[in-house]
Amino acid sequence: MTFTSNTTDLYTSSTGDNTITTNDYCAALTYIIELTGALTGCQTAPTISINSATQITDTNTITVSIEVDDADNNDTKVRVEYETDYDEACDGPWATATLSGTATADYNDSGGAPDVASSGYQVGSTATTRIITTSGANTVTFTWSTISNITAENEGTHCLRVTASDDTVDTT
Question: Which of 52, 67, 14 minimizes the C-alpha distance to 144?
Answer without folding.
Answer: 52
